[in-house]
Amino acid sequence: MVFLSLVVATILVDVVLSDPLHIPIVKRTKVKTVESYANAAEKLRYKYGFKSNSSRKRGNTSPVAITDEQNDSSYSGVVGIGTPAQIFSVVLDTGSSDLWVGSTSCLTCSVNAPAFDPSQSSTLKLASGGSSQVHIIYGSGTVQGGLATDTVSLGGFSVAPQTFLVVDETSANLFTDGVSGIMGLGFESLAATKALPFWESLANNNQFSSPEMSFYLARLVDQAQTEEAPGGVLILGGTNSSLYQGQIDFVNMPDGVSPSYWWQQVNKVTVQGNTVGISTGTTSYAAIDTGTTLVGGPSTDVKSIWAEITGSQALSPTGQYAGMYSYPCSIDVQVTISFGSNSWPINTADMNLGELGNGQCLGGIFDLTAGSDAGTGQGNPGWVVGDTFLKNVYSVFRSNPPSVGFAQLADGLSASSGTSGSNPAQITQTSDPLPSVSGSSGSNASSAPPTVNAMSSLYLTLFATLVLALSLLR
Ligand SMILES: *[C@@H]1O[C@H](CO)[C@@H](O)[C@H](O)[C@H]1NC(C)=O
Ligand SMILES: *[C@@H]1O[C@H](CO)[C@@H](O)[C@H](O)[C@H]1NC(C)=O
Ligand SMILES: *[C@@H]1O[C@H](CO)[C@@H](O)[C@H](O)[C@H]1NC(C)=O
Ligand SMILES: *[C@@H]1O[C@H](CO)[C@@H](O)[C@H](O)[C@H]1NC(C)=O
To answer: Could you list the active site residues?
Structure first.
């Protein structure tokens, strides 16, 4: 059991809003020395308003610049932790509810990302005792560390004290360069640390002009880019009407489900215009998850989806691509997913994760059960609807009433060629063994498996949904 031994008596919520934050370009150069980290950190403290000369004023919405990491693999924002603020890029993750950053004593954390130095914060309080150690299990890895409280800022908002995890160990390849941790934007009941999430403390204290967090996630997978690029914007406490058009279609969480993940029910899926038979009941419940790169679904449903694509193949359940499917790169895979009464199309570019070889490309929808430790049932979602879908909409996470809204993006945002494979995610050459093809849903089932001459390093695909051990469905 995780027991929070820290006394979190009063939560002081303070809004430090400096000059309006536009969508600044966040493009880090490779910084290698401790000194250059310090300089870069100082600049960023000013840039993001963690240190500011401007007079304090109250504000109740604040934009947070989002960085697109590694061709839409994950989307991060910059948090400040401690006094003076140490700054970190963290994945903005609606699929989990804990905040953590790697510490200077973490040997397994990302080497090219700043680490939190507990000795350099005058406001840090470390928890003590055995119960202060927490282990968090995500769909694509684990972290562990010690509980602490400190001042935490994101956008123009600060919470002090905020409980978070100072991580000293992570599983391999959880992250790519530049990212130091995760900011969970799910509900408190999902928190392994048992701490009230940053956003929820702001919402509970009426710091938001409306109880909403809204995302525009840029699509860069079909454009030439560097490792990190401006990747959209998160608005804390509201929406920005310049980023979407038409109405926001809010759909309440399914009946009988208490908020933990941002639950929605998948009502319908179409592929190439055809409606696919999918599971009903709790199996159709989805976590809407900005922290996961792809879309994962129930085995049978995902199989049915790919069955609509001639020449698609399930990749080996024992290999690196467990749960994933390949399909002929020449096909534009057109998928729509319905929540409530609206159907939202996924751009064909988002369905194509790159060529595996022999004209076969890796598909953006995978079998959640085969592809991760997150089995369905027992409170885990049947679907995890990640960035592959979310890049295509303006998404609004509203805590009261608990609901998620989608709207059409404003013209000119995420403009895409709409064709697959124009510039897919990079496939890194490795000497890994080739995946074998375990089955086929296409018409060429008996042909030889594709010869894979290039391999994707799939650690670039983040699956930051918290994996539950107990049922949260009531
Ligand atoms: C803040 O104010 C101090 C003193 O007025 C000044 O020296 C410093 O350059 C200012 N910093 C910024 C970022 O404006
Ligand atoms: C809303 O977004 C537009 C377009 O990015 C931007 O110019 C504007 O400053 C934003 N408004 C607010 C209040 O953040
Ligand atoms: C992202 O895509 C660009 C263009 O295809 C490619 O040059 C780059 O190496 C890719 N980066 C990663 C991390 O895959
Ligand atoms: C099946 O595979 C063969 C050889 O790889 C190819 O020539 C043929 O066009 C394929 N048929 C279909 C229907 O994809």
So the answer is: 93, 289
pLDDT recorded at residue 437: 31
Q: Is the CB of 46 under 6 A from ligand 1?
A: yes
Residue identifier of the C-alpha nearest atom 9 of ligand 1: 53
Tokens of 379: 């409170």
Can you tell me the distance from the alpha carbon of 447 to that of 161, in angstroms, rounded to the nearest whole number? 60
Is the per-residue pLDDT at 143 higher than 70?
A: yes
- 19 pLDDT higher than 70: no
Q: What pLDDT is stored for residue 454 in this prediction?
A: 26
Separation between Cα atoms, residue 121 and residue 115, nearest integer Å: 13
With 0-12 / 13-18 / 19 or more C-beta atoms within 10 angstroms meaning exposed / middle / buried, residue 146 is: middle
Nearest to residue 28, comparing CAs of 89, 75, 73? 89
Cβ atoms < 10 Å from Cβ of 377: 12
User: How far does residue 208's CA lie from ligand 2's centre (Å)?
Assistant: 17
Distance between Cα 233 and ligand 3 center (Å): 22
pTM of the model: 0.78
Distances (CA, A) of 343 to 270, 271, 330, 339: 9, 12, 25, 7
Predicted confidence (pLDDT) per residue in 430-474, tens digit: 222 223 233 333 333 333 333 332 223 333 567 777 765 433 332
Which numbered ligand comes closest to the C-alpha of 224? Answer: 3
45: DSSP letter: H
CA angle 92/94/100 to nearest 5° reads: 55
pLDDT at 426 over 50: no
**Residues for the chain: how many in total?**
474
**Ligand 4 centre distance from Cα of residue 444 (Å):** 6
Q: What is the DSSP letter of 429?
A: -
Task: State the Cα–Cα distance between residues 413 and 392, nearest whole angstrom.
Answer: 9
Domains of the chain, each with CATH number or no CATH: 12-229 (2.40.70.10), 242-460 (2.40.70.10)
Is the beta carbon of 54 within 6 A of some atom in ligand 1? no
359: left (phi over 0), alpha (psi -120 to 50) or beta: left
CA distance 85 to 151: 8
